[in-house]
């Protein structure tokens, strides 16, 4: 259909970012198609998010599945080129920094299809992260850069992105969080998992943390030291299963390893936690708004605003247990102010820009 906006999503964190944009464009009467790359395919990594977020079924699932970066990216590109040919959208919208994002950006650029990137301009300045490569490539190919955090505008400007391509709109992942606040029930999670008293939530899946056996051992030691202070619930991403298991995760009695959780169950669990220990990107943002202390086990973050305006702190695996002790002792102050425009209206702002852009074509 002429004027159709095609959303390309593929991996877990994309879904929460896309939902408010899709909804706002629907309200604006814009024709849309959802193309799922199939990068994440387990029911617990994908279907449950569509259900929890009330997203319509994808119009097309490319079913590419897992593989090396080249295999996965190439498979998405080949299948997507064909899908774009069939849907003939006026604009492709991509989200975040996963391989599906960049694969779609490359295809769009080569076939002359205008591209919008939601969550543009974030930089960890660490090119060993696959996501940093994805962010940079996607931004340079985007006609519309939707920015969640003020410093990202400066990053884009420094990389030569013209000002008229950048739109500071706030954070659609936080739209989703705020829209669902009354569904996040920590008590139900406590009951389901048999948790009494304070508990920590951990998520660990970065390749730099879990793919290397020595790094995985350090993480397991860290979890052991934290779980000596309070029970730890670890919804385990498939990527870390083998390496953390081999490093002795199963021997830690006070670490409750559970399957990956859906959106509502996971955020409910986080909402009731005394502390979150993570290497995820989005969780740094979600804990910031929920007011839950977050320790990010990484040497850097592309989301520094969660440190200056949030509850986030970077730690090494060695520092984390002491940081947890400090938080449990009460030496944790909530930030005075939230990041600007993380107010639940980012999807609306994005839809307004897209609708105006479509009208101007
Ligand atoms: C991807 C993103 C990462 C994001 C994460 C969120 C890239 C480069 N990385 O990492 O930025 O934080 O998603 O979860 O795009 N697997 C399953 N079932 C699935 C999907 C994956 O078992 O539904 C397993 C496979 O063994 C696969 C591995 O997980 O090889 C990694 O999956 P992949 O999508 O390649 O990367 P993630 O680590 O999930």
Helix content: 40-55%
Low-confidence stretches: none
Mean pLDDT: 97
Number of E-type strands: 13
Strand count, sense and barrel status of the largest sheet are: 7 strands, parallel
**And the CATH topology of the largest domain?**
Rossmann fold
**Tally the helices: what do you get?**
16
Which ions, cofactors or small ligands are bound in this entry? uridine-diphosphate-N-acetylglucosamine
Summing up helix and strand content along with how strands pair, one would put the structural category as alpha/beta
**If you compute it from the alpha carbons, what radius of gyration comes out, rounded to the nearest whole angstrom?**
20 Å
CATH architecture of the largest domain: 3-Layer(aba) Sandwich
Shape: globular
Domain count, please report it.
2
The spatial strand order of the largest sheet comes to: 3-2-1-4-5-6-7
3D structure, described in words:
By secondary structure, this protein is α/β, with parallel strands linked by helices. It folds into 2 domains: 186 residues, Rossmann fold (3-Layer(aba) Sandwich); 145 residues, Rossmann fold (3-Layer(aba) Sandwich), CATH 3.40.50. 47% of the residues lie in helices and 14% in strands. It contains 16 helices and 13 strands. The strands form 2 sheets. It has a 7-stranded parallel sheet with strand order 3-2-1-4-5-6-7, with helices on both faces. Helix 14 links the parallel strand 12 and strand 13. The longest helix has 19 residues. The two termini are 15 Å apart. The mean pLDDT is 97. The site of uridine-diphosphate-N-acetylglucosamine (UD1) has 19 residues, from helix 1, helix 5 and helix 11.
């Amino acid at each position: 259909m002429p004027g159709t906006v095609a959303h390309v999503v593929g991996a877990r964190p994309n879904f929460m970012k896309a939902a408010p944009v899709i909804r706002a464009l629907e309200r604006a009467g814009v024709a849309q198609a959802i193309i799922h790359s199939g990068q994440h395919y387990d029911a617990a990594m994908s279907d449950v998010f569509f259900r929890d977020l009330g997203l319509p079924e994808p119009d097309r699932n490319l079913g590419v599945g897992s593989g090396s970066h080249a295999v996965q990216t190439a498979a998405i590109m080949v299948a997507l080129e064909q899908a774009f040919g069939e849907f003939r959208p006026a604009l492709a919208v991509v989200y975040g920094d996963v391989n599906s994002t960049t694969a779609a950006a490359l295809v769009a650029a080569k076939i002359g299809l205008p591209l919008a990137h939601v969550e543009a301009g974030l930089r960890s300045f660490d090119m060993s992260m696959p996501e940093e490569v994805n962010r940079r490539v996607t931004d340079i190919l985007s006609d519309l850069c939707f920015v969640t955090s003020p410093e990202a505008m400066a990053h884009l400007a420094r990389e030569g992105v013209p000002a008229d391509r950048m739109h500071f709109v706030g954070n659609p992942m936080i739209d989703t969080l705020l829209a669902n606040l009354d569904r996040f029930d920590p008590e139900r999670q406590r009951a389901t998992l048999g948790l009494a008293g304070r508990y920590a939530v951990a998520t660990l899946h970065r390749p730099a943390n879990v793919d290397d056996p020595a790094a995985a051992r350090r993480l397991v030691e860290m979890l052991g030291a934290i779980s000596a202070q309070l029970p730890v619930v670890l919804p385990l991403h498939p990527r870390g299963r083998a390496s953390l298991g081999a490093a002795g995760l199963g021997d830690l009695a006070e670490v409750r390893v559970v399957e990956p959780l859906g959106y509502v169950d996971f955020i409910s669990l986080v909402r009731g936690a005394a502390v979150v220990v993570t290497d995820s990107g989005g969780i740094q943002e979600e804990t910031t708004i929920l007011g839950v202390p977050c320790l990010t086990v990484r040497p850097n973050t592309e989301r520094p605003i969660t440190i200056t305006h949030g509850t986030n702190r970077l730690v090494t695996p060695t520092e984390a247990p002491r940081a947890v002790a400090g938080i449990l002792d009460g030496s944790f102050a909530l930030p005075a102010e939230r990041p600007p425009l993380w107010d639940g209206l980012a999807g609306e702002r994005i839809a307004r820009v897209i609708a105006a852009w479509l009208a101007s074509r």
